[in-house]
TrEMBL record, chain B:
Any Pfam family hit: FtsX_ECD
Name the record gives this protein: Cell division protein FtsX
GO biological process: cell division
InterPro entries: ABC3_permease_C (IPR003838), FtsX (IPR004513), FtsX_actino (IPR047929), FtsX_ECD (IPR040690)
Keyword Cell membrane part of the UniProt annotation: yes
UniProtKB keywords: Cell cycle, Cell division, Cell membrane, Membrane, Transmembrane, Transmembrane helix
Organism, as annotated: Glycomyces algeriensis
């Protein structure tokens, strides 16, 4: 992580024995810098540096004519297979960050790379192909009500031109993986909230994306169901998929103890491995 | 597979919004039949012009009491004129014959006229009918000449009427066309709204833009094709019921509007309306569905 400090001048490394663990931004958040623990599934500091999946360098986005939250000089580097919580108060700029990563918005300044793609230089017509490398899950599931669970998942394959034979083979597999075996032919209204979210996760994961963005995926679910969804996401993350999850659920963050990036007023105020909600 | 999905979305979209679809098709049909009629009239003016170009004459009417010497003199002068190609003398008797032929349907009128009333005349074929005003200027004031008329001027009135009718049809076509395109834009917006879930998911999972847009653009194109078929039907019906039917006598005055000319319009109308509708739909989408 030493390269972080070299690359971005605004990043100030607090002196730690293990430089890999906590990087803190700004003096006002010094108290967070004391948390130093390795993430359980990713030995860091070892010679092998895993591939970077997300690179945000000096990313700035303002909305001069609206009061949508802006982001200011954001620097984030996320490795392949990392599980990252993205927290912060409403209006801090979390959704703007998601939009920037999805290339729904283009930053005013800075550089965004996801995988091998330089998102800031991406031509408009290449955006759809880029989005195929990203899966998305939302608070409101966003399933098509007139399609069954299997059809909802197959839809994501059909519309990007995958032949039907692929869908026939892959869809049952992924539904089995998310724990919906036997419920393939139910419509969304015949499923519980947690099950609907599983369908959404299956749809996001069916293309084996490099990155999975989850925008408050447990926001509409009760605590027990939330834990189940988190177990599912954890399992997916262990397949090597990077997961970036926006959440307000402190229990989940505190239980999972994964990397936490906190954003406030469009700036990153904390970036901490094995963090808590705080 | 994907084609099947797109087609089913097209028809579902048109059906869900059936009243708007019907309105769109009707306005398009009206606009396109007016456009078709305008094009036919435009074609007709050309046909008439070509038809008469070779037959147009300047007629030099002589005074009734003119003597033979003066007549011969004028004849010689006309023949010597550089602008003139051919001169034919028409005596009073000949003029009466022609008059009787023209008005054979009105025997009372024919009876009331005898040869003395009609002037003798020279029918002059010009080398170029466009030079007629110059010839008229030269002979109008000459002794023994009663009047010089240019048939082209009479024909000009026919052209003016046709031109006026043509402008009227094109203006209606334009106004209706604008209304039709507004309806297309509106239909696309409504369709985009009712399909917003699908569209959002398609964009999220990375469906290509053409695939997201295809159902909407094809809805507009489909309506345009149906509209032009209706417009074509209207024109064919007009050919049989109006031109060859009720107003046959009126249209006999000019060369016939051929069925072929109407048939040619079908691909033109389909092409024009499909392309313009598709462009309108596509532009509407650019504003409604952001990438």
């Amino acid at each position: 992580m030493g390269r972080l400090t070299m690359r971005a001048s605004t990043v100030r490394m607090k002196s730690r024995r293990n430089p890999c663990t906590a990087v803190t931004y700004g003096a006002e958040t010094a108290e967070y810098a004391t948390l130093v623990l390795e993430p359980p599934d990713r030995p860091c500091g070892s010679a092998v540096r895993l591939r970077l999946v997300i690179q945000l360098e000096g990313v700035t986005k303002h909305y001069p004519r609206s009061n949508r939250p802006s982001v200011e000089d954001v620097n984030v580097f996320i490795d392949k297979g990392e599980f990252v919580f993205f927290i912060g108060p409403t209006g801090a700029g979390k959704s703007t960050m998601i939009k920037l990563l999805l290339r729904e918005e283009v930053p005013d300044k800075g550089k965004i790379s996801v995988g091998d793609t330089d998102v800031t230089k991406l031509r408009r017509w290449k955006v759809p192909a880029y989005r195929r490398s990203i899966g998305c899950v939302f608070q409101d599931f966003r399933l098509l009500p007139n399609r069954t669970a299997a059809e909802n998942v197959a839809f994501a394959l059909e519309v990007i031109g995958k032949p039907r034979s692929v869908a026939r083979r892959v869809v049952p597999e992924v539904l089995e993986l998310v724990g919906l075996g036997g419920k393939e032919h139910r419509y969304p209204h015949e499923l519980s909230g947690g099950e609907q979210q599983r369908v959404a996760v299956a749809r996001a994961f069916v293309n084996r994306p490099l990155l999975l963005l989850a925008d408050e995926p447990t926001g509409n679910l009760d605590p027990d169901t939330s834990i189940e969804i988190m177990r599912l996401l954890d399992r997916i993350s262990r397949t090597g998929t990077t997961i970036l999850m926006v959440t307000h659920d402190s229990n989940i963050v505190n239980q999972m103890r994964r990397r936490v990036i906190e954003i406030e007023n469009g700036q990153i105020v904390r970036d901490q491995a094995r963090g808590v909600y705080g | 597979m994907r084609a099947k999905y797109v087609m089913s979305e097209v028809f579902l979209g048109l059906w869900r919004n059936i009243s708007m679809t019907v309105a769109m098709i009707i306005t398009m049909a009206v606009s396109l039949s007016m456009l078709g009629a305008g094009l036919l009239l435009y074609n007709q003016v050309d046909v008439i012009e070509e038809y008469y170009q070779t037959n147009l004459e300047v007629v030099v009417y002589l005074e009734r009491d003119i003597d033979q010497a003066m007549t011969d003199q004028i004849n010689a002068e006309l023949k010597d004129n550089d602008l003139v190609a051919e001169v034919v003398y028409e005596s009073k008797e000949k003029a009466l014959e022609r008059f009787q032929e023209t008005f054979e349907d009105s025997p009372d009128l024919v009876k009331s006229v005898d040869a003395d009333v009609l002037p003798s005349a020279f029918r002059v074929k010009m080398k170029d009918i466009a030079d007629a005003p110059e010839l008229i200027k030269q002979f109008e004031e000459r002794e023994g000449v009663y009047q010089v008329t240019n048939q082209r001027e009479i024909l000009q009135q026919v052209f003016d009427i046709l031109g006026g009718a043509q402008r009227l049809t094109l203006v209606i076509a334009l106004v209706q066309g604008v209304a039709a395109l507004m309806l297309v834009a509106n239909t696309i917006q409504v369709a985009a709204y009712s399909r917003r879930r699908e569209v959002a998911i398609m964009k999220l999972v990375g469906a290509p833009n053409w695939f997201v847009q295809a159902p909407f653009v094809l809805e507009a194109v489909f309506a345009a094709v149906i509209g032009s078929v209706f417009a074509f039907g209207t024109l064919v019906a007009a050919k049989f019921l109006v031109i060859d039917g009720q107003f046959e006598d009126l249209f006999k005055l000019m060369p016939q509007i051929k069925m072929q000319a109407i048939l040619v319009l079908l691909p033109i109308l389909v092409g024009v309306s499909a392309v313009i509708s598709a462009i309108t739909a596509w532009i509407t989408l650019r504003f409604n569905i952001k990438v």
